[in-house]
Amino acid sequence: MADSQNINRRRFLKRSMATAAAGVAVPTIIPAHVLAAPGRPGANDRIGVAYIGAGRRANQLMSLPPEGRIVAAADFDLKRAEAVAAKRSCRAYQDYRQMLESKDIDAVFVATPDHWHVLPSIHACQAGKDVYLEKPLSLTIREGRVMVDTVRHYGRVLQTGSQRRSMNNHRLGCELVRNGVAGKIHTVIIKNYPSPWECRLPQQSVPDGLNWDGWCGATEPVPYHDDIFIQRSNPGWISLRPYSGGEMTGTGAHGFDQIQWALEMDHTGPVEVWTEGGKLEPVIYSQSESRDRGNALCSQGRRVRFRYANGIVIRLEDNGPEAGGEFIGDRGKIRIGNNVVDSNPLDLAKTSLDDLPIRLPPIDNHIQNWFDCIKSREKPIADVEIGHRSAILCHLGNIARWTGRKLSWDPDKEIFPNDEEANSYLDRQRRAAYELPVVTSS
User: Fold this and answer.
1) CATH number of the structural domain spanning residue 112
2) Distance (Å, rounded) from C-alpha 297 to C-alpha 293?
3) Residue 368 domain flag
4) pTM higher than 0.85, yes or no?
5) Is 318 exposed, middle or buried (0-12, 13-18, 19+ CB in 10 A)?
6) What is the mean pLDDT of each run of 10 residues along the chain (442 residues)?
7) CA–CA separation, 403 vs 274, rounded Å?
8) CB proximity list for 329: less than 8 A, separation 6 or greater
9) At which of 164, 185, 207 does a domain end?
10) Same domain, residue pair 153 and 181
């Protein structure tokens, strides 16, 4: 800790001397936001970070900025948490609620399966911790709104893991669209992501150290099987309706987020959604097999459409770009996908940034942006409201397939007006011990 303080002090002195040499006055009054306070690290403090979920994605998120330090990890599979603890010299827990009681934890990464995204994030906010929550932000639309209200009520900083907002070419593509380089946008094409399906897999032995009942969470417990527990296996939880919205909310969350960003729709959404091909009948896996059959049945012939109030239509097509969108205007097309931007005509994508009046935040490190906002208490680039609004499009696409008809959507009230069947999909049944708390924004 002493070495860290000395490094911070040297950096501060260098910055101060450089500023003075440039003829800029160095303030002698320290702003309140750089001072430490309960639930708010100071500008020179190291941020104690813990992980709720210690699997593949969590390990990908452990390259922290210099001011971060890993202090704990929790997972229903205790062996996973212990593996992180051994590698990172930190503490291991099986119950994340016990971990949240620790005073040395300032913030948490929530990198769990989707059905466990919101509840631990709420508990973290209640414990005074800031949150980095993997996308999609929620499993249901109501969960997402409760998450927004919780963050606002407790004054926390929540960064959604929509990290393409912190990638240069995604930002460039969205800037080109916002500045009208392709003209007035009338259509956006995105990949036709499959919805989730269901399974009735036979029982296997629960691995040692895994609390399977806890992993099932709010869902009704089912017999353990590797191909439920492992994310993208045969098929894996990400394709199964009790635990995820399928690839519609998996990779689709990135693509819809780019559409919302480029179209300046971060705080609203479409007003209509429908599917071509009729109602999606339940697809059930009774034995281990690849995801190909389920993906085909849940997407092919069932192309989803959205319409915004300004007339822009989103079309889900098999040839749509991954994790982005193709924006079609009256001057041409701009295609964004996997940190690549191209256009038709080709010169649209080569437009000089110097000529663009609308510029988006030049963030190139998603976790660093979160850390900076933990200290400044500003909203991060993928704030909770943004993450919620992007996830809504994913959920609307699934609901359109489940109902098989055109639906009207009120993006302000977040309901399907006068549609009892569609509104029944806004939330899910939960076991008694896993109900969401009642929280109001403030």
Assistant:
1) 3.40.50.720
2) 6
3) no
4) yes
5) exposed
6) 39 34 32 49 81 97 97 98 98 98 98 98 98 98 98 98 97 97 98 96 97 98 97 96 97 97 98 94 94 91 95 96 95 95 96 90 97 98 98 98 97 98 97 88 65
7) 9
8) 180, 182, 183, 184, 185, 186
9) 164
10) no
